[in-house]
Amino acid sequence: MEYAMAIPQLSPEQLESARSAATAARRARADLKEKVRTGKMTLGQALEHAADDEVLSRVKVVDLLRALPRVGITRSQEIMESLQIAPNRRIRGLGRHQVERLKEMFA
């Protein structure tokens, strides 16, 4: 027997609130990557900062790596494979050893 779950009907206020929360989350994640891209924040600092933040912890590791100078698609894939990190892994899903190795690699 299958159970169908009804999609909740949100009021216009609830929809607007959800939209603004989603926009704020996207901006926060983009800001983190921009700080890494411009050198205002190191990869280690970004990982530590994101670990304590529910929104930032949802950034994909590969996207954060690609924000680093001189790290593109190929190099980010090589790094992910060498550290045995799944391509779809997010920061919050990293183990402490993976975080340490990433920090060592870009120290």
- Tell me what the CATH architecture is: Orthogonal Bundle
Mean pLDDT: 92
Low-confidence stretches: none
Give the number of domains. 1
What is the highest CATH level, the class?
A: Mainly Alpha
What kind of sheet is the major sheet? none
CATH topology: Helicase, Ruva Protein, domain 3
Structural class: mainly alpha
> Distance between termini?
55 Å
Radius of gyration: 17 Å
Shape: globular
Keywords: Ribonucleoprotein, Ribosomal protein
InterPro entries: IHF-like_H2TH (IPR055201), IHF_actinobact (IPR047806), Ribosomal_uS13-like_H2TH (IPR010979)
Domain Integration host factor-like helix-two turn-helix: 37-106
GO molecular function, one term: nucleic acid binding
Blueprint (SSEs and pairs):
Blueprint: H1 12-38, H2 43-51, H3 61-66, H4 73-82, H5 96-105
Protein model, in words:
The protein is an all-alpha fold and 107 residues long. The chain has helices at residues 12-38, 43-51, 61-66, 73-82, 96-105. 58% of the residues lie in helices and 0% in strands. The model has no long low-confidence stretch (mean pLDDT 92).
Structure, briefly:
The protein has 107 residues and is mainly α. The protein has helices at residues 12-38, 43-51, 61-66, 73-82, 96-105.
